[in-house]
Specification:
Strand content: 15-25%
Order of helices and strands: EHEHEHEHEHHEHHE
Largest sheet: 7 strands, parallel
Distance between the termini: 24 Å
Radius of gyration: 17 Å
Helix content: 40-55%
Shape: globular
């Protein structure tokens, strides 16, 4: 795709590490002005900004809890003030609470749904006025293969990621005539800190017998950003682990 992204303003949630960082750097390298969102990892968010600027892009850091409506409003307002109306949104913020199924609590459920699913709703609602005014927008929701297979984290996580697909379909259908596309990417067993350290995942038993890379996942996200004719779709990045 030859879509020119130069000068477009984007927000990437959960951009301090892993897939979020990869998306932020790729967008910055493509000429976007990037709001690097993080909740807790300030030093790692600063490293993301450094990599964007090293690649010739523009970036600034915004601390905000993407599951909190007040924080989301501030995040979007600060982004507009700094870089102008938002054209691209990558909903990547997520948590993975790992416990045996019978030890999961209502608080675990609520926290997971808030960070993994409600955040995407809040951010999308907040940026829609900008995209509608421009009649151009790209929203990509970073889901998970767990939405289809159950995964290894638990039903709370799988449900939150499956919900992202319903969210994607609903917004895509509502916005298809306004120049705004909404898609999702569902990676599995990607070589990130969350996978190898937080979840302590061993070498996957997928057909390729290896972890996916952040770069391979980012390629899928950037396809959705650049392609104006794809909307309401989910692209699985899973080494042949599951066919959809």
């Amino acid at each position: 795709m030859a879509t020119d992204l130069s000068g477009k303003t984007c927000i990437v949630t959960g951009a301090s590490r892993g897939i979020g960082r990869g998306c932020a750097v790729a967008l910055g390298s493509a000429g976007c002005r990037v709001a690097v969102n993080y909740r807790e990892r300030a030093d790692e968010a600063a490293e993301t900004r450094r990599r964007i600027e090293e690649a010739g892009g523009e970036a600034f850091i915004v601390q905000a809890d993407a599951s909190d409506a007040g924080d989301v409003g501030r995040l979007v307002d600060e982004t507009r003030e700094r870089f102008g109306p938002v054209s691209i949104l990558i909903n990547n913020a997520g948590i993975a609470i790992t416990k045996p199924v019978d030890e999961l609590t209502e608080a675990d459920w609520d926290a997971t749904l808030a960070v993994n699913l409600k955040s995407a709703f809040l951010l999308t609602q907040a940026v829609l006025p900008d995209m509608r005014a421009a009649r151009w927008g790209r929203i990509v929701n970073v889901s998970s293969n767990a939405a289809f297979t159950g995964g290894r984290v638990g039903p709370h996580y799988a449900a939150s990621k499956a919900g992202m697909h319903g969210l994607t379909h609903g917004y895509a259908a509502a916005l298809v005539k306004e120049g705004i596309t909404v898609n999702s990417v569902a990676p599995a067993i990607i070589d990130t800190d969350m996978t190898t350290q937080d979840l302590r995942a061993a070498t996957p038993k997928n057909p390729m017998e290896r972890f996916g890379t952040v770069e391979e996942t980012v390629d899928a996200v950037m396809l959705m950003v650049r392609n104006a004719y794809v909307t309401g779709q989910t692209l699985l990045v899973n080494g042949g682990n599951y066919f959809h």
